[in-house]
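Checklist before submission:
- one chain only
- standard amino acids only
- sequence pasted in full

Submission:
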Amino acid sequence: MDESRKTILLFGASGSIGSSIADVFLSRNWHVVGVTRRVDSSHANGVAWIVADPLANDAVADVYDEYAPYYAVCWAQGGNVNDCVYDVDVDAHLQLYQANCVYILSSLKLLLQRNLLAKPARLCIISSIWQEIARQNKLSYGMTKSALRGLVLSAATDLAADGHLVNAILPGALDTPMTRKNLTAEQIDELAGATQFNRLPQLEDVSRLAMFLCSEENTGITGQFIAADLGFSRVRVL
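Returned file contents:
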């Protein structure tokens, strides 16, 4: 590995947001190490892969050591479920909390215990605008994303002694094939028309923001929650 290149550890690198983040970092000559539970041929070229599951009972402690130190870490993994207070499945709710919150906490703890972060490092968590506002039938998703607020604020406070910066990006409904598959044309039009941009935010809006927050250009932003939603969560078109 070229030691002159900075390395980002990217959890969820095989997902749509993670893949976009990987592409941006690769284009800026970063070394990208992706974490996934399994590697297949569709995964991005140029990414070094670590096969790991931080939630597994038999997780190997030294699995991240090879590519350290990490100048940046980004968590773009997570799950989703539709439910409400009337029909919530408590077991499924707890599983989502594991995927969206405990996954980040346990992997971050391991990186710190093994001293794998550069000092300072920049840490970025991909959350959602639904941690700040509510929508129907998103009880467990909204609760688990809201819990990340406490994680980011606590980590930003505790890790400041080592100079680490910790932030979260809150994407809105992004213009992806998955969004267009899960929403009707009428719902997409309504989302796009909620601001006078009359379009949905793009994956690149998230990945370029992650690039800035994880780069040396970010010298003092920490403990922040930055929406990448074209203003959707802050404006009303009347």
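Reviewer check: The mean pLDDT is 95.
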